[in-house]
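Hi F.,

I've been meaning to write this up properly since the lab meeting, where we talked about keeping a consistent format for the predictions we share between groups. The idea is simple: the sequence comes first, exactly as it goes in, then the structure tokens exactly as they come out, then a line or two of notes. No screenshots and no reformatting. I'm using this chain as the first example so we have something concrete to point to.
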Amino acid sequence: MAIPSEKDIELPLLQEIETLGGEAKPDDLYDEVAHHFPQLTSSDQELRYSKSGQLIWLNRVHWARMHLVNKGQLDASVRGIWRITDKGRTRLGVVPLPPLPPPPPLTISVILEKEKELIRAHLHELLMNLHPQQFEAFAGTLLESVGFTDVEVTKYVGDGGIDGYGNLEMGVVKVRAAFQVKRWRNNVPPAEINQFRGAIQGEFDQGIFITTSDFSDEAKKVSSKRGAVPVVLINGDRIVNIMLDKGLGVRQEPLTLPRIDEEFFAAFGTTEE
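Output, unedited:
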């Protein structure tokens, strides 16, 4: 069957979030929402876009969620948590929505900041949907965007703990660096940093550890161990910051505002009393 449209997914998604107590993680919702579509087979759910390799079903659910956020029926204030709002419950007929006073006028800066937060959250979810091998290739592109050259991604299996390497020239100094990536939701522990450092010691000048999640406090401490190869830590928030700054996976669209055309009125001349 055709995979359900984003519009068709909206209501079942709201229902399942409400059933789970009003908030849930995305991974807890995909299968539950799929049960609302009996003709959607497990094979359908494994279909991927030919170009990006992303799962079509998961992508549709994420876009349905974005539409619900824009309608005010889901709250996107906490990353990784999808929370229903009173407006979403009203759509389900759970509670009436009391009349609200008119909202204060939004400034352009507030509107842009809200839109940017939505984009940040969506970018992070798209990264989590990448296959680990695709995420390794993405990491190579990410490093190239900040100035690395001769970037190579190692083979996916049996890479010896090194997912890729490249060079960064800083004036007359060339730094040879290796990188490892983890498409994780949990924080990276110090053992992962130490193991990665052991794999690159004596061969590379620097290590770069990239993860979609974050690093434990102890992992941050051991990353700059005295006398050992330094390991630069790049967490999920920093990845998204780089993507926005370098235009990776995003398009910058100009904001156009009306302005008074004084020449238009000048053509009619002035009126003297």
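Notes:
The mean pLDDT is 89.
The beta strands are 23-24, 74-75, 82-84, 149-153, 164-170, 173-182, 206-211, 231-234.

If this format works for you, I'll send the rest the same way.

G.
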